[in-house]
Write a structure and sequence with these properties.
1 helix; OB fold (Dihydrolipoamide Acetyltransferase, E2P); disordered C terminus; 23% helix; seven-stranded mixed sheet; 2 domains
Length: 132
């Protein structure tokens, strides 16, 4: 009887808690990075190979951090157009050439750590800063 109860508790832990832990790890990976483009790296052939972002430090009061992110031919770029009044902003396809130093962007990373999707405007329409 005790073994049955113990086995039941173990099964619950395995089937309930394990997926929750995996989902938390997955959410962290999908969170991405937000920041301002500090520099754009190019190859000799003028192909964008990476971007350097200045991102807000995790600890309050600390200096901003710098993140270098590799860009590949698979990296997608999107931007938000200013919506008509009463409409929600919608992303539109962009080009890697649309990236400029100083722009606020949000970068979703691929599993290998390269940029999967770069959203100009940091995920906010027209690159607007969050209201404070």
């Amino acid at each position: 009887m005790k073994w049955t109860l113990l086995l039941g508790v173990a099964a619950v832990a395995l089937f309930v808690l394990a997926p929750m832990a995996m989902a938390a790890d997955h959410a962290k990976a999908d969170a991405g990075i937000r920041g301002a483009i500090k520099s754009i790296e190019t190859s000799d052939a003028k192909v964008v190979t990476g971007i350097t972002l200045t991102v807000k430090a995790k600890e309050e009061g600390a200096d901003p951090e710098t993140k270098v992110i590799k860009v590949t031919e698979k990296t997608k770029v999107q931007a938000f157009e200013k919506p008509a009044e009463g409409e929600k902003p919608a992303p539109k396809a962009g080009k890697i050439e649309d990236l400029k130093v100083g722009q606020r962007v949000s970068v979703k990373l691929a599993e290998d750590g390269t940029a999967d999707t770069i959203t100009i405007g940091g995920g906010r329409p027209g690159g607007a800063k969050k209201a404070e």
